[in-house]
Amino acid sequence: MASFGFLAFLVVFIAPLVLGSLPCSPIDFGRGSIVCECNATYCDTVDPINQVELGKYMQVFSDKSGARFAISEGSFSDVAPPENSTAVKVTIDRNVKYQEILGFGGAFTDAAGISIASLSQPLQEAILKQYFDGEIGLNYSIARVPMAGTDFSTRTYSYNDVENDTSLSSFSLEPEDLQVKIPYVQMAKLLQPNLRLYASPWSAPKWMKTNNEFYGMGSLKPEYYQVWANYFVKFLESYAEHNITFWAVTAQNEPTDGNIPGFSFNCMGWTSSEQRDWIKNNLGPTLANSSHSDVKIIMLDDQRIQILNWTRTVLSDPDAEKYVSGIGLHWYVDALVSPAALDVAHSEFPNKFMLGTEACAGALPLEESVVLGSWERAEMYASDIITDLNHWVTGWVDWNIALNMTGGPNWAHNEVDSPLIVDEYMDVFYKQPMFYALGHFSKFIPAGSIRIHHETGSFAGLEILTCLRPDGQIAVVILNLMTENAVELQLTDSERGNMELLIAPDSIYTLVYA
């Protein structure tokens, strides 16, 4: 494994080894589709789509058969489609606008940093460029940073494990922060200066909790509510010393986990009313009276199925509501509740943004952790993003930006999949289909885009998202979940005309036009 001690590497930020839009170097592991291999001298890239010539459109295409960001050009037609056409009709109305898009991203976990650090330095840089570079990479604009340990660490720890240190005089960042999180966050910020960072805690120090443990069923002792709020400020101050500032914090990662007997990894339990009271009495006022008063608070940071109970409890209290800016959502049990719940939450609390704050494949019981070449997982990502954004969610943040070949390291053996999988022994990393699924959104729907209205004829298996970009161009993402049949599609924009497309089975398209 390569040394973690490479802070000096930031001073001499190595120029990219390969420039320009380059094709995938495919490897088939026999799991349904290909991965693209990146080594120290070669990695595929994708150029941005800038101003498209009026009357034309650019098409970006990926599919199960092995296409990865294949770019081609087409033209609009002024000829109206025939009335008896059997094609699926999509009509775009840019005059009806919905929410602003905050963007897309991933998380700088300990496991991600350890996995990246196991590679040679050129490949470490390459991973960050693949995600955060706006020219050759995915143009990520949001990233999550855990506050201290998670299950995706090699051990359990907090920033102050000294018993009863209520003054937090022993608070300090840990080696994981200094060696495998902060250096990569700094690199990402060099590539993406406007990167929005948010921090999330998994557990308070053991001595602050009812069960005196980082995991299992346990909650914060009420006598430590203010100390825990002070801990947040200490964290923000400590990272600021490394020139890293945060856009937001979430009040707690998955607050319901710590209410489950025997829960197997880092957690801390809250009820919705407990989170309400802690935000209004402790966290909100403490942040507001600190030098980090501009840091936003995101509530919930848990499953969609809980959104109405939690928002109605927390945001119906004006003393708590005034401190909360957004609602964090995880995707793991989305199948259990209709996305209409998101519409309801938006209608009741329209001034609070909703953000997908965590998602990963391979996390559910009986699922294989890492599947090299799974197109199905790419489709799961794309479908969830389209569904979320079509129901007022403002962005979507993946979990670990990189993991090793077994989906770790993870001290609790809760290994999962990642868009980038690292093979430290071969000194390569593999770009999973999930990576390209994410890129069909993050690369071509930049932060500041606005979702706009579209009407679609009824057709099972076809999912569509339409957005107006900050540069005034339209981006359309089309997902075809059909495994055997291509779909004829007619897209109409009243200001530009019509285009006819044949949407391949098991495919994702992004269209950009002026």
Report the radius of gyration as a whole number of Å: 23 Å
What kind of assembly state do the chains in view correspond to?
A: single chain
Shape: globular
Structural class: alpha/beta
Describe this structure in words.
Helix content is 23%, strand content 26%. The chain is an alpha/beta fold and 514 residues long. The chain folds into 2 domains: 26-43 and 53-99 and 450-513, Immunoglobulin-like; 105-442, Glycosidases (TIM Barrel). The strands form 3 sheets. It has a 9-stranded mixed β-sheet, covered by helices on one side. Helix 1 (110-117) packs across helix 3 (175-191) and helix 6 (307-315) packs parallel to helix 8 (340-348). The chain is globular, with a radius of gyration of 23 Å. Residues 1-20 have low confidence and may be disordered. Keywords: Glycosidase, Hydrolase, Lipid metabolism, Signal, Sphingolipid metabolism. Residues 1-20 form the signal peptide. Pfam families: Glyco_hydro_30, Glyco_hydro_30C.
Summary of the model, kept short:
With 514 residues, this protein is of the alpha/beta class. Helices cover 23% and strands 26% of the residues. The longest helix is centred in the middle third of the chain and has 17 residues, at 175-191.
What layout of secondary structure does this protein have?
Layout: E1 26-28, E2 34-38, E3 56-63, E4 70-75, E5 88-100, E6 103-107, H1 110-117, H2 121-132, E7 142-147, H3 175-191, E8 196-201, H4 225-240, E9 248-250, H5 272-288, E10 296-303, H6 307-315, H7 318-321, E11 324-330, H8 340-348, E12 353-358, H9 375-389, E13 393-400, E14 403-404, E15 420-423, E16 428-431, H10 433-442, E17 450-456, E18 462-468, E19 474-480, E20 487-493, E21 497-503, E22 507-513
Parallel strand pairs: 5-20, 6-7, 6-13, 7-8, 8-9, 9-10, 10-11, 11-12, 12-13, 14-15
Antiparallel strand pairs: 1-2, 2-16, 3-4, 3-22, 5-17, 15-16, 17-18, 18-19, 19-22, 20-21
Helix pairs in contact: 1-3, 2-3, 4-5, 5-6, 6-8, 9-10
